[in-house]
């Protein structure tokens, strides 16, 4: 008599997943998957030992906490279960390569993957069928993503917000109801808008006691003054940096700006949405320039924060190389010396060595005496103001052309509507409908472009230079440039000069009229900062579009004697 064959009950684990909250509310909801999975295990005599639930996670990658926990358990020795049960293979993965990779990884430890709705055997034919179905799942996932993105881009083109949490300083409001779907736009949130403005103010002007602040200093200042984030938490460097670099605050939100790998998408795929502006474009641009100049990957940290006045600006006129600091007598004396000569000797360059203190005083004094005078500033900036006036004239002409285009389109629309009312034209005519739609689009776009151009013109108009501004700027700069031992002196000097060349018998100080105008227009008035000035300019542009300004040579006593000759 044969003994009965004993059967060992297999242990099973359920893996349940949905991609979105909307999906969880419909046919493939988590409770429905769990109910079907438990019934499947009971029907086949599996012992259900664990359930892994993944709400709101995509199956195109393995960055899923519960998925990783399940894989870790399934590949451990001994495995706590023998079978992983899923509703369909697409719940496990929507990438055919990754699906096969993890199936084989589990199989090496004796764990099988089975689907409730797609039962397969272990023979080669069923394996091939599973792989084909995985390919279709992957294709469907990519097609769905493409159609969703296309719909979201169209939604953005119409000026609506695509559902994500808006940046701090904004809030969403229902702008239109289309059936059961509410179309939303964003508006300025009065509760947090001042926080954003304060952050940009600290980055461009400081808090009144120091100069423009860096990201870390701003976060420290906000926390010290009891200003919290939108969620009531403390500020960190990342949150402040994100605000300072977000172009949405200038009134232009870029949807679909980056793709996979955080790489910037082509301009044709980016949709620009007009939103209420919180920050003036000029202030935003100045903050970006300053942050870029302070970036350690662009400027060496010792140049940004070091105590030396001319570090990063001073160059040898003979070889074009930078001049570095050399000390003598145990550090009691400091000199600027040609770095090429220091590395290669006189065969590389016969450049000069100049006492640091004397050269610093020479440059600062020459800027005080020759540049920072109202009459001199007016002379220097005349050509810049002339060019701005020309641009203003062109902008006004462009605005007039846009208004004319909008008016003509509106008049043509009225004539078409009159023809429809009088029975001359048929509203059901497809060509007539297309013509009306085209004219409406032309009119509306012309109006939007005109409004944008008017706003730009108003913004530039507020930066007009007056004699009082020149006098106040010159006086403030002469006072601040002489502060010893602090960042003000370096920052202010770099706003006035971007390149200093040392040659036999003279020093050439070179700057940009456009940069000087930006600093002057940034924050006029007595008792104010000199505006958004850079802390380092790593490379000097040798093109002549900066309109260099000449000053006559003036002899000053150095050892050896050096003359200062300024150009801008």
Describe the structure.
The chain has 568 residues and is of the alpha/beta class. It has 4 domains: 11-120, Resolvase, N-terminal catalytic domain (Rossmann fold); 170-294, Hect, E3 ligase catalytic domain fold, CATH 3.90.1750; 314-371 and 467-521, no CATH class; 392-459. It is 46% helix and 15% strand. It has helices at residues 21-24, 30-43, 65-74, 89-92, 96-107, 124-157, 193-204, 215-224, 237-244, 281-294, 301-305, 339-344, 356-371, 374-421, 430-461, 467-480, 487-496, 513-522, and strands at residues 11-17, 47-54, 83-86, 112-115, 170-178, 181-188, 252-255, 271-274, 314-316, 323-328, 333-338, 353-355, 499-503, 506-510, 554-556, 562-567. The strands form 5 sheets. A 5-stranded mixed beta sheet has the order 9-13-14-16-15, covered by helices on one side. Strands 2-1-3-4 form a 4-stranded parallel beta sheet, with helices on both faces. The chain has a 3-stranded antiparallel beta sheet with strand order 10-11-12. Helix 14 (374-421) runs antiparallel to helix 15 (430-461) and helix 14 (374-421) crosses helix 16. 28% of the residues are buried.
Concise synopsis of the structure shown:
With 568 residues, the protein is α/β, with parallel strands linked by helices. The chain has 18 helices and 16 strands. The chain is flat, with a radius of gyration of 34 Å.
